[in-house]
Structure formats: structure tokens, C-alpha cells
Design a protein that fits this description.
about 725 residues; single chain; three-stranded antiparallel β-sheet; mainly alpha
Length: about 725
């Protein structure tokens, strides 16, 4: 009889047995608090100091109880413990073990997949991990990766889900030497040694690209416009009503139900309302329906929807007794006929300018308490969206912002302030994160101020501003309000359906700054300002979050420059030449590239003239490209840059776009894409000339020079474009 392929002693004590997990994982606990322990089947970490704020309550514990098989449960516990304690004596010598500590959220995800894997094995009749074969591994990944439609047919295949499933199986194989319970056979090599990313097709799916795509402009524009309108226009009114609600609730809590204010108190209250024209308070539809169901009000009772409890609280008692109604009914019905009834909040709403500029409207219609609560939530969501969209904060970094994170504005020049926020950098850092700082724009600083005020005057420093952290549900509620009657009444543009996440907003901001550095973001925010504060944040903390964000922007700028240069080169090949003072140098470069490609084609005829070869030859020049409003600036030699000579800073490492005169700078070129800008400049100057009086000779002369320069540039662009078109027709 052959010996088993996977001999192992039974009843071996686990290397983690009896261990207290927090010291093992490097977690800090308050004094006097202990646990959890490895031998327990549920590991709660709620008491750990420094847990990231973005962790949901269910992610703060690792629950192994769904794994029914006791030995499999032990295997799962040993695997997770090894991931969180890679320096443990029993783990560090494993050849294929992870060498970095895995985060609690990561291990929670791995445990969830382990539970699915073990349940699937049980459904297949597998009782011992010895029985698992390559067939089971592949079948499970197929099961997890395929999504079935209602008819049972496969409608989608997810490489990302396949990668997660493969990673779980591969992980159990890599750590099998550690396990004292059941484990895979020694000869099992899941997926023939392929990695999870490569074997699942996820690497091919991404193809080196960022999977998170930026938002489309038709989503970004109305979203940011609604966010800023809510923060800058509606926030003061919402905060005022929230304070009023808070004060009212505090006063109501001090009342008792045993006090009888007396008939006269009710009459005085009603007479006051009649004199001031203040309506009675309505009940919500749910409250009115409940009152009818309990027989407290008749369906056709004139007072059916009036909140008598609210009237009683105003008179000094918590509840309105039914026995009081017959005596008060005539006076109540008289007051109702004279002043009516409406919801309690926002009754005297001030008018604000509509978001579309089409007149003014009351900032709200009367609101019930629950509606005001929702509106406060929408405002809080708007504040979180503003930070994600205008700072590029990650989900985990938003969760670490607390009351008191705003630093006093620093005046760096008369009337010019620098705004800073303090928080924590979480991603890639030890548990608890490290202190970080963001330089932000005034709009973001105001959003944080509003978020602090939403928590009320009693919010202690250190209270989380965005808890729960921004999620899809809160965004969808905000979008529904913008697209609903309230948002449309205020002139807000509807927001189309799209997946809006902090990742997508961060990606969108990076793309906008990289591809349109001098332009405007949605809602007329200057991209230049956002770029400057990002750069200042990097300079203040070179290892901080804004440094990482700036690195993303720089990568996108490199992609942008390569793309622009390739397009210009293809125009050159089509006969459309650049114009401007720097055109000769650029054409000379393209001529040399053509010559080099010709040499390569003679040496290797099979070599194709692909973009990849052109990129390798043009990459050095692409790094010198800076986008001007009406030109491309090839910043090769600072000594030749006209803007630096005019500013007296010849040693600067970047051009001064605000001082650019591309018609005279030897490093500037003009292309067909710049024609609309020059056309607009010429027409605008002509309009101004027509509006000048005879006395304004100096201004007229300056504008005429501007018109002449624009016409010369336009003529050069048109001439070269026409020559290129003629060349294409001849060929």
C-alpha cells in the first residue's frame, strides 16, 4: 500500500493557539481591555485604537462561524492570522508567504471569499481538503466569474471576480505548510502556477490602463454645479432651520405629559397665530393615517391633518389629550379657517437666485421634520462630494476628517489666503495612518465649515465629519433630490445616471488638470487654482496624499503630451505643417524622425512604422510641451523663452503662460486646433475698437496691433492647412 501523498500528524497544536491577537497583530488597545483570542471563532476589533473611520461595523470583526467544518475553520483562522502577522516565527520562513502586513479590510474580504469557497466545496460533496483537485479549483473560479441571467444563460464574465476567487485558492496552497488542520495535497498546484491577475484575465482586461474612468462632462457639470449651489447658496438657510429644529427638540424634551396648560393657554396661542397669520402645524401623511386608523380622527374631520400635539407642546405640555378636543374644537376650526396649516420648518423661506439664473425662488417649500433631516443629509453629501471632486481625496481620507481639521487661513499676500486641512494618510500606512495636510481652495474650506456646522454646536473636536463615509446610497439620494421637484424648482440641471465614487471624482480631477490645465472646471472653477493648491500641498508635504495625487496628474500630462505630439506628427506627414516662430525647429525634428524610420525600414523591412516607434523617438520632445491658450510651447531652452525674458527670470524651469506672446516667442507653434482662439481674439478686438471714442488713440493703436497679429497668425494657419489639403488631393 502506497503512503498518503500528504502525510501530516493529526492533533498538532496550532502555532497561534492561545495567542491574544491584538499584540500579535500590532494593534493598540485601551488600558484594561484584552482580546480577542485566536481560539475564539469570532474576532471583534471594535476597541482597537486607530482603526480607519471608513471601516463599516461588520468589517471591524472577523467572523469564522459561517464555516461549518471545524478543521476548515481552523485552517481559515491560521491563514488570516498569518496574513496579519507575517513576522511570526511560524510564518516568516514560509517560501511563498506574504511579507507585508495585510490590512483588516483586506483580510475581511479574503475571509468572505474563503467562506464562499468552503461552502462550494461542501456542496460538491468534499469533506476533506485532501480531496481537492485542479478540477475543483478551476470549476469554482468558473462558478464565481460567471453571472447568469434569468434564463440561466451566462450574461457576463468578471475577470476581477475570477482574480479574487483564484487568489483565495492560491493563498491556501501557498500557506499549506503552516496549517495544522486540513490542507491541500502537496502535489496540488492550482491553475498550473498562474498568478491570480494573469490567470483570471484581469491583466489583459486592464492592458496597463487605469480601470477607473473619469466622469463624462454631462455628469460632472450638473453634479458640481448642484454641489456648489447647495453649499454656497442653500447652506445658510438649511443650517438656520436645523438650529431651529435642534432648539425646538431640546425644549420639547424638558416638557412633561402631566401638565395641563388650561383652556386659556390654548386660546392665547390660537389668537397669537391669527394676529400674526402663522399657520397651524400639519401632521405628516403617515401620522394622519395612523391617527385615523386608531380612531382618534375621523376621515372627514377638518382637523384630521392638524398636529394637536405640536400645539400642546407650544402651550407647555408634551401631549394633547383627546378629552380637551371637544371644548377646543370651535376655536381650532376657526383658527384653521383663518390661517390654514402647513409643515413646521421653512415656512418663511427667503428667496434665493435660481441656479440657472432665471430669476429668484423661495429656497424651500415648508418642510416636515423628517424632510429637513433628509435635506441636512443632502447638504452633508454635497460637502463630501466637493472634497472628493476638488481635492481628489480618497474614500479612506475623507473618513479621517474631523471637527477642527480646518487650520486658520494664512495670508500670504494682501487679500490672498492659503487654506489648509489636516487629516490622515491611510493607504499604504500602518494602522492608524500618519498625519497629513492638504492645501485647498476657498470653496473646499467653506464646505468643511458647513460640514462642521451641520453637526451642531455641541460637536466635540475630533468628531468625524463624514460618518458614515460617502457611499453610493447617499449619492443616489442626493441625485434624486437634485432631479426631483425641489431641485428643478431651484433651477438645478438634472444629473444623468452614472457611477459616481470618490475614485471616479479623483480620476476626473486629475484628467481635467492634466488635459486642460488653464481652463475651467464645471461650475466655473479655475483649474489653474486647483493645480496650484495641489502643487503647494506637495511642496508642504512631499510624501503626503497630494504628492501622490500630483504624481497621477504628471503621468496623465505625459500621456497627453505624447498624444498631442503624435497628432502633430501625423499632420506633418499629411502635409499640414505647424506655423509660428518655433515651427522650423519642430519640422526639423519630424524630418529627422522620418529619416530614422526610413533607415530602420531598410535595415529591417518587416518593421512597421507604428506609433510605438514614433513615441520612442519623440518622447524627449514631448516632455518639453506646455499647453498655451492659443499655442503649443516647446520649452526646450529657458534662455530663449520670451516670457521669462520679459519677467526677468531666465532660470525658471517652467514657462509663464500668463505672459506668453506666441507670435514672437521662438519656442511657440500654432496649429489648426488654435485657430478658433485667434479668431475669437481678432473679433473681440474689433468690437472693442468700434466702441472706442476718438480720444482713445493709444488704446485704439494697441488693439489694432492685436488685430494685425491675430490676422497674421490666422493667415499662416490657413495657408499651411490649405497647402496640406492640396497635397493630399494630389496624392
Amino acid at each position: 500500500m502506497m503512503p498518503p501523498l500528504n502525510p501530516r500528524p493529526r492533533h498538532v497544536v496550532s502555532p497561534f493557539a492561545g495567542a491574544e491577537l491584538c499584540p500579535l497583530f500590532g494593534f493598540a488597545l485601551p488600558l484594561g481591555v484584552t482580546g480577542p483570542y485566536f481560539d475564539e471563532d469570532r474576532w471583534p476589533f471594535d476597541a482597537v485604537i486607530g482603526l480607519p473611520a471608513y471601516l463599516r461595523p461588520n468589517q471591524r470583526a472577523l467572523d469564522f462561524t459561517p464555516i461549518a467544518n471545524g478543521e476548515w475553520r481552523l485552517t481559515a483562522k491560521e491563514y488570516i492570522a498569518a496574513l496579519m502577522a507575517p513576522r511570526h516565527d511560524a510564518v516568516r520562513d514560509l517560501a511563498h508567504a506574504e511579507r507585508t502586513v495585510q490590512a483588516l479590510s483586506t483580510c475581511h474580504g479574503k475571509l468572505s471569499e474563503l467562506i464562499r469557497w468552503f461552502k462550494w466545496l461542501s456542496d460538491q460533496g468534499i469533506a476533506d481538503l485532501d480531496e481537492v483537485t485542479s478540477y475543483h479549483c478551476n470549476a469554482y473560479v468558473d462558478f464565481r466569474g460567471e453571472r447568469l441571467g434569468d434564463d440561466g444563460e451566462v450574461v457576463a464574465d468578471s475577470p476581477s471576480t475570477r482574480a479574487v476567487a483564484m487568489g483565495t485558492v492560491i493563498g491556501l496552497a501557498q500557506y499549506r505548510e503552516l496549517f495544522t488542520g486540513q490542507r491541500f495535497r502537496d502535489d496540488l498546484r492550482p491553475f498550473n502556477g498562474a498568478s491570480a491577475a494573469g490567470g483570471s484575465g484581469r491583466t489583459a482586461e486592464l492592458a496597463g490602463a487605469n480601470k477607473v474612468q473619469p466622469l463624462a462632462s454631462d455628469v460632472q457639470q450638473p453634479l458640481l454645479a448642484a454641489v456648489l449651489y447647495m453649499i454656497q447658496t442653500l447652506a445658510p438657510h438649511i443650517l438656520r432651520e436645523a438650529d431651529a429644529k435642534r432648539e425646538r427638540q431640546a425644549a420639547d424634551r424638558s416638557l412633561t405629559a402631566t401638565t395641563h396648560p388650561g383652556h386659556e393657554a390654548f386660546l392665547r396661542n390660537l389668537e397669537r397665530r391669527i394676529e400674526s397669520g402663522e399657520p397651524l402645524e400639519l401632521m405628516t401623511q403617515v401620522g394622519a393615517k395612523d391617527a385615523r386608523a386608531r380612531g382618534l380622527r375621523g376621515e372627514h374631520d377638518p382637523l384630521a391633518a392638524v398636529s394637536l400635539s405640536a400645539l400642546a407642546r407650544e402651550c407647555g405640555t408634551r401631549q394633547f389629550r383627546g378629552a380637551w378636543l371637544p371644548e377646543l374644537r370651535p376655536d381650532l376650526e376657526r383658527a384653521l379657517a383663518l390661517v390654514g396649516a402647513c409643515a413646521p420648518y421653512g415656512r418663511h423661506a427667503a428667496e434665493v437666485e435660481r441656479a440657472d439664473g432665471q430669476g429668484h425662488a423661495a429656497w424651500t417649500e415648508p418642510l416636515f421634520s423628517v424632510e429637513l433631516k433628509f435635506l441636512v443629509g443632502y447638504l452633508a453629501t454635497a460637502c463630501g462630494l466637493a472634497l472628493a471632486a476638488l481635492v481628489g481625496m480618497r474614500h479612506c481620507e475623507l473618513g479621517e476628517l474631523v471637527v477642527g481639521c480646518r487650520q486658520p487661513p494664512q495670508e500670504i499676500a494682501p487679500g490672498l489666503f492659503r487654506y489648509r486641512l489636516t487629516g490622515k494618510l491611510i493607504k499604504g500606512q500602518p494602522l492608524g495612518g500618519v498625519r497629513d495636510e492638504w492645501v485647498v481652495t476657498r470653496e473646499v474650506y467653506e464646505a468643511i465649515e458647513v460640514a462642521e456646522q451641520l453637526l451642531g454646536p455641541d460637536a466635540a473636536p475630533g468628531t468625524s465629519l463624514f460618518h458614515p463615509v460617502f457611499c453610493d446610497t447617499t449619492y443616489q439620494n442626493f441625485r434624486a433630490w437634485v432631479n426631483g421637484p425641489a431641485g428643478q424648482r431651484l433651477g438645478l440641471a438634472s444629473i444623468p445616471e452614472a457611477a459616481v465614487t470618490p475614485r471616479a471624482l479623483r480620476r476626473t480631477l486629475a484628467v481635467e488638470i492634466a488635459y486642460r490645465p488653464g481652463g475651467l472646471l464645471a461650475a466655473k472653477l479655475q483649474l489653474k487654482h486647483l493645480s496650484v493648491v495641489t502643487t503647494e500641498g506637495y511642496a508642504a508635504r512631499p510624501g503626503g496624499a497630494q504628492a501622490k495625487f500630483l504624481a497621477e496628474i504628471n503621468e496623465l500630462e505625459e500621456e497627453r503630451n505624447i498624444g498631442i505630439l503624435i497628432d502633430v506628427y501625423r499632420d506633418y506627414q499629411s502635409g499640414i505643417m505647424p506655423s509660428g516662430p518655433g515651427a522650423r525647429d519642430l519640422i526639423s525634428l519630424f524630418t529627422s524622425v522620418d529619416g530614422r524610420l526610413h533607415e530602420l525600414s531598410e535595415l529591417a523591412p518587416q518593421l512597421l512604422d507604428s506609433d510605438l516607434e514614433v513615441v520612442s523617438m519623440l518622447s524627449a520632445r514631448a516632455r518639453t510641451l506646455h499647453l498655451g491658450t492659443a499655442n503649443y510651447c516647446w520649452f526646450i531652452d529657458p534662455a530663449k523663452a520670451l516670457c521669462l525674458r520679459l519677467a526677468g527670470t531666465p532660470d525658471a524651469d517652467r514657462p509663464l503662460a500668463g505672459m506668453c506672446d506666441s507670435a514672437r516667442c521662438p519656442q511657440a507653434t500654432h496649429h489648426p486646433c488654435h485657430r478658433p482662439v485667434w479668431e475669437e481674439s481678432r473679433e473681440t478686438a474689433k468690437v472693442f475698437i468700434g466702441s472706442l471714442s476718438r480720444r482713445q488713440k493709444t488704446e485704439r493703436a494697441r488693439l489694432e496691433v492685436s488685430v494685425t497679429r491675430a490676422e497674421r497668425v490666422l493667415a499662416e494657419i490657413d495657408q499651411l492647412a490649405a497647402a496640406g489639403a492640396a497635397g493630399q488631393e494630389e496624392s
